[in-house]
């Protein structure tokens, strides 16, 4: 992924894609002092751009470091990166991490480095797969207690369990894994939040052990606008037998219907497919 043409915004300037490097003794690489965002541009506009910049700032704050660029500066840099790459539809990755100034666990002298890259990344799944619903297995790893890790941050360290879970699922022929939280409540997929349908209402876990997804919030708003009830509550895995539909939400996944989680099956229906279409129209500002 490092060997391609293009430009990456690093600490205020554009550098050639292949030269956007950091030293191997970077604090963020050794101790996961790193936070990031994933965003999408649709038809020339980055969806919820400022919410993402604000979340990057909040995530850094939870890891006790500051980003030396304001939210407005980050917004400008993200737009400039897409323009420099000539994209009007793309995925944008912003990352902020502690640099290589010294390598003890404590990091007072370390500066915060910030980088923004954009690349073309069309929808994860094709229309036929979405219509059938993707298959998930249960993850072996659980989302940590907020007393164990800053679990509300979009922090690189928390993705160790996501990578383990996603790769285990793919090795077993599934698209993704559904993680439980430390109490064994249903939490989220490795890069997406989850919703279930029961009697015409949506049920989704609260954000006490999961990422407070921007797509999750958007879908809650879309559902409210259609008069669909949204119940935010803890969900036990065995309750999945009582749900008829399921879908996951995320910037990369968008709204993706789910056909299976472990031993439980779902049939993508009116609510999932309707919200999937509504989301597609909203991000492209088509009413
Ligand atoms: N949970 C996890 C673990 C994620 O990585 C993501 C993707 N950022 C989400 C949920 C969805 O968040 P968003 O809708 O803000 O992309």
Automatic annotation (TrEMBL):
Keywords: Amino-acid biosynthesis, Aminotransferase, Branched-chain amino acid biosynthesis, Pyridoxal phosphate, Transferase. The keyword Chaperone does not apply. Pathway: Amino-acid biosynthesis; L-isoleucine biosynthesis; L-isoleucine from 2-oxobutanoate: step 4/4; Amino-acid biosynthesis; L-valine biosynthesis; L-valine from pyruvate: step 4/4; Amino-acid biosynthesis; L-leucine biosynthesis; L-leucine from 3-methyl-2-oxobutanoate: step 4/4. It catalyses: L-valine + 2-oxoglutarate = 3-methyl-2-oxobutanoate + L-glutamate; L-leucine + 2-oxoglutarate = 4-methyl-2-oxopentanoate + L-glutamate; L-isoleucine + 2-oxoglutarate = (S)-3-methyl-2-oxopentanoate + L-glutamate. Its EC number is 2.6.1.42. It holds the Pfam family Aminotran_4. It is an enzyme of class 2 (transferase). Transmembrane segments: none annotated. GO terms for molecular function: branched-chain-amino-acid transaminase activity. Acts on leucine, isoleucine and valine. Belongs to the class-IV pyridoxal-phosphate-dependent aminotransferase family. This is Branched-chain-amino-acid aminotransferase. It comes from Brevundimonas abyssalis TAR-001.
């Amino acid at each position: 992924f490092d060997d391609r043409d293009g430009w990456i915004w690093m600490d205020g300037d554009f550098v050639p894609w292949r030269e956007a490097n950091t030293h191997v003794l970077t604090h963020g690489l050794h101790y996961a002092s790193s936070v990031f965002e994933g965003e999408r541009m649709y038809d020339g506009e980055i969806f919820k751009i400022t919410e993402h910049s604000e979340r990057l700032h909040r995530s850094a704050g939870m890891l006790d470091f500051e980003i030396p660029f304001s939210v407005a500066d980050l917004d400008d840099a993200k737009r400039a990166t897409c323009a420099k790459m000539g994209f009007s539809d793309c995925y944008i990755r912003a990352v902020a991490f502690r640099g290589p100034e010294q390598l003890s666990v404590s990091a007072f002298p370390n500066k915060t480095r910030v980088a923004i890259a954009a690349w073309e990344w069309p929808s994860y799944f094709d229309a036929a797969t979405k219509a059938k619903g993707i298959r998930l297995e249960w993850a072996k790893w659980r989302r940590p207690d907020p007393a164990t890790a800053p679990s509300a941050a979009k922090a690189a360290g928390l993705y160790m369990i996501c990578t383990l879970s996603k790769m285990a699922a793919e090795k077993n022929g599934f698209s993704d894994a559904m993680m439980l939280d430390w109490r064994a409540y249903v939490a989220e997929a490795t890069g997406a939040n989850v919703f279930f349908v029961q009697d015409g209402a949506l049920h989704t876990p609260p954000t006490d052990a999961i990422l407070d997804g921007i797509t999750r919030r958007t879908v809650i708003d879309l559902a409210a606008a259609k008069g669909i009830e949204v119940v935010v509550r803890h969900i036990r895995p065995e309750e999945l037998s009582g749900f008829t539909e399921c879908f996951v939400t995320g910037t990369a996944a968008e709204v993706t219907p789910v056909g299976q989680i472990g031993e439980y099956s779902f049939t993508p229906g009116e609510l999932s497919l309707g919200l999937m279409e509504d989301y597609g129209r909203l991000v492209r500002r088509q009413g």
